[in-house]
Amino acid sequence: MILITKLVVVIVALAAGIKVIDCCVVWAARRRLEKLQKLKAPAPSRSPLPDALVVYYSRSGHTALASSYLADQLHADLRAVEAFDYSLGLAGWVNAMADGGLDDAWINPAWMDLAPYDAIYLGTPIWRGCPAPPAWEFVRSNMFPGKKVVLVTTSRGSWKQSAIELLGREIVRRGARSFEHRPLARKRAWFRRSDPDDLRITDLM
């Protein structure tokens, strides 16, 4: 009986510890996200009929920031894709680390009307050397007939060229007339700048 009681106490303590860690992770992630959002690009002065679309998935906000500035410079439309399995917090982080390298995910929205656009810029973080699963899911859920497709990746390190080429072949197989990869290195300076107007996509390329 005493052993069972001790076991229950240990389990409760472990659960409480995990909850505390998760709260700390969420708090830190939200603070970082708030800093990034302060650097958000101003609303772009777009032409009446933009011919480019910047669509992105971003878990921590870095890819969202880069994509917003890219859309501003291109006078492009900007759309976000969400993936609830990879939300802020310990569980979302664990899922992201475990799923890095996979090519499917539940995203919303999965399909978009790409017909009005000539060029599609797809922004995604790099997880374990590969484009995040939501980027793969978006590609598999859409067709790109005659489109120029540019994959914009954000990461702190390197990426697997084979993974980039595999995604590129899938995009071309779905009708794209061209594919290119533009990697952006994540820098701490992204959210240390005091003046958001000083941040330009050219600084990140």
TrEMBL record:
<dbReference type="InterPro" id="IPR029039">
    <property type="entry name" value="Flavoprotein-like_sf"/>
</dbReference>
<feature type="domain" description="Flavodoxin-like">
    <location>
        <begin position="52"/>
        <end position="205"/>
    </location>
</feature>
<dbReference type="Pfam" id="PF12682">
    <property type="entry name" value="Flavodoxin_4"/>
</dbReference>
<dbReference type="GO" id="GO:0010181">
    <property type="term" value="F:FMN binding"/>
</dbReference>
<keyword id="KW-0288">FMN</keyword>
<keyword id="KW-0285">Flavoprotein</keyword>
<dbReference type="InterPro" id="IPR008254">
    <property type="entry name" value="Flavodoxin/NO_synth"/>
</dbReference>
<protein>
    <recommendedName>
        <fullName>Flavodoxin-like domain-containing protein</fullName>
    </recommendedName>
</protein>
